[in-house]
Amino acid sequence: xxxxxxxxxxxxxxxxxxxxxxxxxxxxxxxxxxxxxxxxxxxxxxxxxxxxxxxxxxxxxxxxxxxxxxxxxxxxxxxxxxxxxxxxxxxxxxxxxxxxxxxxxxxxxxxxxxxxxxxxxxxxxxxxxxxxxxxxxxxxxxxxxxxxxxxxxxxxxxxxxxxxxxxxxxxxxxxxxxxxxxxxxxxxxxxxxxxxxxxxxxxxxxxxxxxxxxxxxxxxxxxxxxxxxxxxxxxxxxxxxxxxxxxxxxxxxxxxxxxxxxxxxxxxxxxxxxxxxxxxxx
Amino acid sequence: xxxxxxxxxxxxxxxxxxxxxxxxxxxxxxxxxxxxxxxxxxxxxxxxxxxxxxxxxxxxxxxxxxxxxxxxxxxxxxxxxxxxxxxxxxxxxxxxxxxxxxxxxxxxxxxxxxxxxxxxxxxxxxxxxxxxxxxxxxxxxxxxxxxxxxxxxxxxxxxxxxxxxxxxxxxxxxxxxxxxxxxxxxxxxxxxxxxxxxxxxxxxxxxxxxxxxxxxxxxxxxxxxxxxxxxxxxxxxxxxxxxxxxxxxxxxxxxxxxxxxxxxxxxxxxxxxxxxxxxxxx
Amino acid sequence: xxxxxxxxxxxxxxxxxxxxxxxxxxxxxxxxxxxxxxxxxxxxxxxxxxxxxxxxxxxxxxxxxxxxxxxxxxxxxxxxxxxxxxxxxxxxxxxxxxxxxxxxxxxxxxxxxxxxxxxxxxxxxxxxxxxxxxxxxxxxxxxxxxxxxxxxxxxxxxxxxxxxxxxxxxxxxxxxxxxxxxxxxxxxxxxxxxxxxxxxxxxxxxxxxxxxxxxxxxxxxxxxxxxxxxxxxxxxxxxxxxxxxxxxxxxxxxxxxxxxxxxxxxxxxxxxxxxxxxxxxx
Amino acid sequence: xxxxxxxxxxxxxxxxxxxxxxxxxxxxxxxxxxxxxxxxxxxxxxxxxxxxxxxxxxxxxxxxxxxxxxxxxxxxxxxxxxxxxxxxxxxxxxxxxxxxxxxxxxxxxxxxxxxxxxxxxxxxxxxxxxxxxxxxxxxxxxxxxxxxxxxxxxxxxxxxxxxxxxxxxxxxxxxxxxxxxxxxxxxxxxxxxxxxxxxxxxxxxxxxxxxxxxxxxxxxxxxxxxxxxxxxxxxxxxxxxxxxxxxxxxxxxxxxxxxxxxxxxxxxxxxxxxxxxxxxxx
Lengths: 282, 282, 282, 282
What we know:
homotetramer, globular, mainly alpha, 3-stranded antiparallel beta sheet
């Protein structure tokens, strides 16, 4: 087979395009994350704070730090039902490397109907309402307008209602923390007003499931008030769920028969019975 | 086209296989992570602790909590050079959803030559040495034996040496924390003995780069002393790097021209200049 | 640790949801692909025809078969430049399984700016024009209207122009085959009219690259005339590129140094010099 | 925030590393696949032949072409049961892009227990036997030795037996074609000898399923005789299954309710009833 011979190296005479990145500087023996030496952060900064620093570019304040940790904890796992979990378990069951299984799970997150998939649409929904809130329009007014516009569609707004939870405990707790930490802004206040308006209207409707704010909705509201955009908020959700995907993939390989047929509906939980933290503050 | 008609539903008369999971219980309005209500964890537990709880099954002690956060922070990003980062940026540059880009990055982690890829082999290496440590064999003895066996291969043991860092700041800090927190066990002590022996032998060799413990090696050593297996330690690395992959994918889409040709060598860091934390303890 | 005990099996008394699929029937010793026994197809049907059968549901006619093979061949590889190829090579370079590398490459296909990414938008563009073609509006008229609407945007319509190819050889050949095989319909005729109109207008503009129909555009046009929707046409592209991703991943692991920094611009081709088929018909 | 300013471009004075690839040459208006202009291949070469050309580097002979098409057709789909199919459907059900769903499916292929996962181990098994075949050792002798060595493990050799098919129709047909096309070599002959020996021994054992050569085994045997290595053979399987993954992902999004819980056991086939090709030769 004839082959064209090519040079192994070439003295470049052209202008090379240099590109910029503002995330991490790596030199010999020195790694700066957004300017901070990583070894200085280690032992002083929590992983949650480091996530914030990496994505936002600066350190969180103490209250922002606490709500961020809570947000990341809230979505760390949701049992064996979500498509992302089933995808991760299905791939893990073939004996694939577990990181590969986790990656397959990530591919099932964030799409319109996947886990975290309504964070973005809920933030758009809230921003639409906030655009009209002002001197003459209260949060309650805006909530009514938003719901009037959707009247007759038969659909709850994005971020409201949940197949399993009539009252999503993650959403309730995240909203409570935003209040306690005095981090409430327009997004959370409008989200609450919409929830109340939905409850009132619900008495006359027959929606079977709940209508209260769900986890995606609370993440959207709290992230919006922190100044995060919808895409970044969805990525926080993605980051938070990876440990859950990893844990399920690991359990699948260690506890289940390989390449079994996984019926998502037929699992039972046999882990520790309900238990509680000793009274502690972080 | 003729079609075979099938029943829409069937009354199952067979015994259904029920399968068990011990990770998360999800009932209406109640989510228990390893037994703990998630809303109770929110605001009280850090994300790092929740990662530990999820993977290990129980709460970390305060000192284990601190080393785990440090471990997770240590690997959160390593700049624009690693293959995982380039894979994530390359996919992000096509306009793909950022979670998809992050998943592509995860696929470049953990393989023998990818990021975190020598955690597993280093832990095996250390376990091999620990198997002979005893009344008559000190850590130093074991280190010498391990290195004698590799003599002549011309290769450093897994977990030692780094292309960029002569002294990997992440490894040094993680080992220091293990010492300060009194979490040192056999793995870290043997890892240190191997490092010292390598330094002594090195004066007579001509290895261009450093021979000191690298980040993968320190993670292997510390994880080993915490009782984690090699696979779980590698998964901790995977979890810790996802925020970095996400940050790079986000920056790629927002700052760079789409589908550019990314030359990993031609980037410059233009983020914040070196800065430091105010004196603080977590 | 207390654990809740769960039943291992349960006699289901509920109605089980049965779901339907019309793709492949698998019984003991019998596999029917869209109704055809797979062992009967083997040796009689080409892989390209089987792809068509699987996606469309029926056998292609002889002329459709030929254009489909040509379409699949056209996009099988485009060298070392596309982001999908770089992503696959980058992951392969870490020592990851090659199927994993190919999957990472697939994640860089089909997005708006990735390979095959304008098939969908081009088909929408053509459909928009076809909606006005009729007794009083010729393909040329429709082409002029479509381009008039885009006047001033400074952008070529989707499916036209290519960074490297002034005249994309794949598009030219695919359109020629559609003509020879008498498979031309509205989409290809309108695509051609737009190309001609663009050429005429181009004399007065200064677009540096070419303005002729590119590979994505030709796939959109031909697929449209075959009655395929835009999503299916894009998936045909995805299927066709997988062998290319696999070939690059394989070459990366066998020929290149592991985890090298891949500069997409600095490759040279050293394969066989240009060669030609003996005169043959398929 | 202080930022370090960096140069936008730099005149490179260093020697640039140029790297080689022998797959595809892309110049303006010219694309050479392994030396052949792609537009010349279009309309003359089948997709299956192009896959062979791309992976192997040269054109297949007419008989090799036929067996390759048969091999690629054999594995194009295996219904709704394989983990890869379930992974693809699960991701598709979230509304993710279908290429993303296909990528998730690919991640479930090729692992030891995934689809195509015993091609590699079967080829090693056959090579082990072929190493002893010679003047004094027949294929039957080698088969006996191989099985004697595994006696008592209770496990069939890789590439033999199938959960569903007592006699895998794909394997039988592929072996028959290898015989008819006079492509039989050591691998297929030894594979057949092992199958016969297994059948004889089986009368005295109680293995519930079949013991005959399965699809993975036949692919390994035929590929081995074609001179392909185990990794390339497994990649051929990967390539061949992508259309199946795509078809299932597409059907999932178009026919099923989003994010449903997919029980792999509860599907029924409602596609075309069994039908047959008119007598034809490719």
